[in-house]
Task: inverse folding
């Protein structure tokens, strides 16, 4: 079964930290599965450098680059699980294109599977049943209160935070806060508040995330 | 051509053996296009699959390769903004190849113009008087069947001597005929410049190059009647090939 685990939400909410944590869980508990981690900051670092120099349209392009990368991982590299870290700022320009990409990828995977079967068994393509390949989607909307965001931004500026998040200025954070549209219309999600940074709170969050991703039923 | 707001994107289209590589290489060697870039399908294939041969790739993977190639063109246009990009592509079907390419150009235009406005806003600059714009031009190269046969012989001799180093498909007349049956000419989403490359004499070559150069500079070097004649001729050759 194919799976996408998506961590969305504003910068400083803990997406990168938890996406990496989930990648570790998969590697240790499901070693036979091919798992990749795709962070939105990978495209930013590769093509733009600093986040504060980017325009809104640059951010949108960065999103498109990341969507194509996820698609590539499934169609070309044949991975089982993609763990993605993407803000998913707006419904129409981010969340909807994400779901379109998932549907297109499912369709392309079905076609590829059929073509491969036809080639291997040397029978006509038409004789092979068209079986839908589902991508199971687990979405976590990560949030935290403003005081925690500001504390984390300060740590990033001082270089104390090594999680790899791109956001470093308050103005950028405010801009994101202003434009953010919570998920809701296109996919189910679990909301995770990361404000409490105590080990007990982290443990509780891990249990919630773990049970959601490892016991998810097939997406209808 | 640098310093102005025109980004030139040229696709040398047509079937195998029509002369796409020959004319693209020539155009890229001209001094006025010295900073032109290219995105080769073959490079995208290597990036995606390494040394896997084209023949081992499924049709669906080819579709994805086309999408990835278009996206690479778009990304470079928006982020790197080269003054010109010269590409080679068959541009086989209207719906799956020609239309998506035009849509990609429209999308890249939207990005470029939006980024330009946002940057001006951010830096408190007045809006640009002449917005950046992509000038998309397609050249459809074609030749008669006798020329195709001749060029197949050249290619086979070449392969005997040097081997197939690129792992790209080794096309033969079957490959050409398959393409001839599938290609949809004339395109409906843009108006190409039709160039018949059958005559390889120095005089004909010079004329072909002059027309292409004028077209790249923004002009349509032939009139409506001649344009229609060439379009009909290109379709007629394809029809002849389909009957073989």
Result:
């Amino acid at each position: 079964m194919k799976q996408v685990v998506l961590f969305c939400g504003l910068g400083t909410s803990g997406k990168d930290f938890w996406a990496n944590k989930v990648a570790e869980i998969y590697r240790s508990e499901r070693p036979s599965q091919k798992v990749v981690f795709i962070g939105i900051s990978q495209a930013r670092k590769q093509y733009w450098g600093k986040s504060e120099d980017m325009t809104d349209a640059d951010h949108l392009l960065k999103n498109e680059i990341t969507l194509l990368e996820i698609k590539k991982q499934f169609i070309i590299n044949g991975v089982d699980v993609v763990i993605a870290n993407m803000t998913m700022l707006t419904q129409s320009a981010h969340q909807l294109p994400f779901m379109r990409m998932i549907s297109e990828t499912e369709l392309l995977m079905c076609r590829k599977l059929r073509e491969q079967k036809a080639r291997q068994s040397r029978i006509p393509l038409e004789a092979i049943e068209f079986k839908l390949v589902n991508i199971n989607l687990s979405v976590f909307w990560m949030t935290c209160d403003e005081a925690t965001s500001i504390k984390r931004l300060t740590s990033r500026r001082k270089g104390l935070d090594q999680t790899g998040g791109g956001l470093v200025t308050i103005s950028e954070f405010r801009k994101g806060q202003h434009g953010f549209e919570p998920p809701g219309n296109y996919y189910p999600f679990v909301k995770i508040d990361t404000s409490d940074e105590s080990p007990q709170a982290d443990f509780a969050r891990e249990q919630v995330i773990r049970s959601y991703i490892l016991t998810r039923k097939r997406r209808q | 051509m640098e310093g102005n707001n025109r980004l030139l994107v040229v696709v040398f289209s047509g079937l195998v053996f029509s002369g796409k590589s020959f004319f693209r290489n020539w155009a890229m060697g001209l001094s006025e296009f010295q900073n032109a870039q290219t995105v080769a399908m073959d490079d995208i294939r290597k990036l995606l699959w390494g040394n896997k041969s084209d023949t081992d790739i499924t049709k669906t993977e080819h579709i994805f390769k086309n999408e990835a190639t278009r996206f690479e063109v778009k990304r470079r246009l928006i982020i790197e903004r080269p003054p010109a990009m010269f590409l080679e592509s068959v541009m086989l079907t209207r719906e799956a190849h020609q239309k998506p390419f035009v849509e990609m150009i429209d999308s890249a235009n939207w990005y470029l113009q939006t980024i330009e406005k946002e940057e001006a806003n951010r830096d408190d600059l007045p809006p640009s008087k002449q917005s950046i714009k992509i000038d998309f031009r397609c050249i459809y190269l074609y030749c008669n069947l006798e020329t195709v046969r001749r060029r197949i012989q050249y290619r086979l001799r070449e392969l005997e001597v040097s081997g197939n180093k690129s792992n790209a498909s080794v096309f033969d007349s079957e490959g050409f005929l398959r393409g001839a049956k599938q290609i949809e000419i004339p395109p409906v989403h843009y108006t190409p410049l039709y160039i018949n490359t059958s005559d390889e004499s120095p005089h004909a070559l010079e004329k072909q190059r002059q027309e292409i150069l004028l077209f790249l500079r923004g002009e349509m070097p032939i009139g409506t009647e001649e344009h229609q004649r060439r379009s009909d001729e290109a379709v007629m050759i394809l029809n002849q090939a389909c009957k073989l």
